[in-house]
Amino acid sequence: MSALSGDEILQPGQLIRPKADSKTAADLVRRLYGLNAKLVSELNAYDDKNFHVLCEEEFENPGITGVERDGYVLKITNSLDSRKTGFVEGQTAMLDFLEENGIRAPKPVKNLENRYYSLELLGDGAEKHVVRLLTYIPGDILHRRADPPDELLADVGRFAAELDEALKKFHHPAYEQHRTLWMLNSVPRLRDFVHAVDDARRRRVVNEVVAKFEEEVTGGMEMLEKGIIHGDLNEQNILVDDEGKRVVAVIDIGDSQRSCLIFEIAIALCHMLLQADDISRGKHVLRGYQTVRRIPEIERNVLKTCVCGRLCQSLVLGAYSYMNDPGNEYLLCTQKRGWSLLEELWELSNDALLKLWE
Q1: Residue 232 catalytic?
Q2: How far apart are CA 304 and CA 1, in angstroms?
Q3: Are strands 238-240 and 247-250 parallel, antiparallel or unpaired?
Q4: Residue 225's beta-bridge partner residues?
Q5: Catalytic entry in 48, 81, 232, 255
Q6: Residue 140 in 3-state DSSP?
Q7: What is the pLDDT of residues 201-217, one digit of tens each?
Q8: 96 has which bridge partners?
Q9: Pairing with 174, which of 25, 180, 203, 353 sits 20 to 30 Å away (CA)?
Q10: Predicted confidence band at 13 (pLDDT cuts at 50, 70, 90)?
């Protein structure tokens, strides 16, 4: 277990992203895993560094029986989350649990020390970073489906509910105290970062959402059903089948958490609305979700605020992170459509929105 409290959260001005390139990744794969990289490409990431690594057939690692044809993902965790090694172990346990329960996700790979992660200093950095290797799952990410069909939106909802239902049987002590800025219950902390948004009108909307979230959600949190959730079912983390109608895998559990179940569908709904570019099509996501789990009235009443809270997180933290890392265009992926979607949602009454989604 990490010596760091599980509730330490990113503070304004704190720079945590690893400094690593493809050469660094190839060196780490060789030194830590006994694998020889032949092709390394960087993947999109927020505060971490992720690399897709294809390897030569020759290897020197007694923990594996053969080289994965589709390669691996080398994950270099940001310096803040790297202090929470207990949660890293919790994620490994969750990946094992998902495999045992027939839910497709990356598999962790042991290093030469027979461990699933190590702490490494990178370059002249002062802080160590957790380094892990996972199997790479090939496939079509939902993000590439510019106009997802109704069947796929419904299946995202179904998958979210079935995943949370399965996770009711998963337990790990690290999840009891784990807290991050990206958890939906951290929406009130956006006040510390909203200065990164240039437009005064947009800042005002964010502050309105935060105030409403504190009133409706934070104030009634004890009444909402809790459980382990994925916490980030967005269009970049979901793989779909060749026909683009079914979810076949989830590829990132870095934001998994113990939290309110309504947060899971609110987060998924937020990102599917961004992908579909049509508020009314949220009804398909909710239809799929409710084939597995009925949404209680108390949760329905805060759903709009939760969806808007997630939009605010993505927009504000994206703007803040880009201010500190202007070369990472991935940080702006929500900005293009996000602000207009937020304003459109926020202007609708709760009753009008729920009626639209029914």
Answers
A1: yes
A2: 37
A3: antiparallel
A4: none
A5: 232
A6: strand
A7: 999 999 999 999 999 99
A8: none
A9: 25
A10: low
Comparing 227-231, 241-245, 258-262, 289-293, the range with the smallest average pLDDT is 241-245
Given a contact cutoff of 8 angstroms between Cβ atoms, the answer to whether 88 and 178 are in contact is no
Alpha-carbon distance of 250 to 262, in angstroms, equals 19
Sheet with 118-121: list strands edge to edge: 35-43, 49-59, 72-76, 128-135, 118-121
Six token digits for residue 12: 């304004």
Q: For residues 254 and 117, what is the distance between their CA atoms, to the nearest angstrom? A: 14
Handedness of CA 166, 242, 67, 37 (dihedral sign): negative
What are the two backbone dihedrals, phi and then psi, of residue 167, each rounded to the nearest 5 degrees?
Answer: -70, -10
Distance CA 13, CA 324 (A): 8
- Extract the tokens encoding 254: 């870095």
pTM of the model: 0.93
Say which residue the tokens 């993947």 belong to: 43
Q: Where are the beta strands (DSSP E) in the chain?
A: 35-43, 49-59, 72-76, 118-121, 128-135, 140-141, 226-229, 238-240, 247-250, 257-260
Per-residue pLDDT reduced to its tens digit, 42-81:
998 888 999 999 999 999 999 999 999 999 999 999 999 9
Tokens of 344: 């459109």
